[in-house]
Amino acid sequence: MSKQLFLNKFQEFITQYKRVVIVSHVxxxxxxxxxxxxxxxxxxxxxIDVKVIIPNDFPSFLSWMPGIxxxxxxxxxxxxxxxxxxxxxxxxxxxxxxxxxxxxVHNDLCHCTKTxxxxxxxxxxxxFSQFAMYLSxxxxxxxxxxxxxxxxYHGFDKYLDDNxxxxxxxxxxxxxxxxxxxxxxxETFEICGKLISPTVDYQLIHSKIxxxxxxxxxxxxxxxxxxxxxxxxxxxxxxIYLSKSDLEAFDYQVGDTEGVVNFPLMIDDVKMxxxxxxxxxxxxxxxxxxxxxxxxxxAKDHFNGGGHTNAAGGTLNCTIEQAIKEFLKVxxxxxxxxxx
Length: 340
Ligand SMILES: [Mn+2]
Description:
Blueprint: H1 3-14, E1 19-23, H2 30-45, E2 49-54, E3 72-73, H3 78-87, E4 90-94, H4 105-111, E5 117-121, E6 133-136, H5 143-154, H6 156-159, H7 162-175, H8 187-195, H9 202-210, H10 215-227, E7 229-232, E8 237-242, H11 244-249, E9 272-279, E10 282-289, H12 295-302, E11 306-307, E12 311-316, H13 320-330, H14 335-338
Parallel strand pairs: 1-2, 1-4, 2-3, 4-5, 5-6, 8-9
Antiparallel strand pairs: 7-8, 9-10, 10-12, 11-12
């Protein structure tokens, strides 16, 4: 299904449904929340009864967002979440393409197999047979940009308001690292230009997202760079590891390690950066790269994950020491690519 076909059919399709549920991915980021809330506000304007479910809590730097209190956090209110899913006549996947990305929601999502699905997403390797309708564009900055396109198609003059514009800007801003990567076409800037207005202040939104560190969070960042970063020059790679005790020492709060993985890429000849974090018995890998080198393959082939060319994630069930060892074992396979 092409983008044009999706746009042409969207309104007729969506208005058939009475109870729509929007779901986004586990550990929701700015794009997950921004795209889901903007889409939620848009569907409300179309007169649709709509709910938003996220698997677990959002990071605190998003807590000011319009509509955030309307979101159901599944692991805090599971009964209600199950009720929403079971009574939905359409389920929308935003910013992910496979139910395994929905944490605790996964099981219940799989129960309602008869409910049709709609997808709006920019991740790779989508199995389109699952979806009644889909807008899937890998070369788009963010799911929020795709939602912006959907709303623009139906008329910004009719549907855009400050809440929607704010949510969309948050999503595009965070998924592009403040417009520093993942921009594939001029439309990203053009659409953002249309979202900004005298009452939607880009600088204020940026400040609310990025200048909200606690003292502990900033000190944790210092600790990561000063004490936990290893640079492997022959591989143009740097990695940072954080054990459970590191996180405890800095009174870790959800979202505190957000963005940490980007810092090693500030080193001139570092092409890949990896953050390895110990989380409730699981090791999480976060990969970033600059240029052509694709971390999607690394995450997919060795760390049970995937994502995009320049940003991906994965997990392993082992200790932090084993995780670092495993990463160092895999690295030589990419030496040639990393030296190109
Ligand atoms: Mn995204």
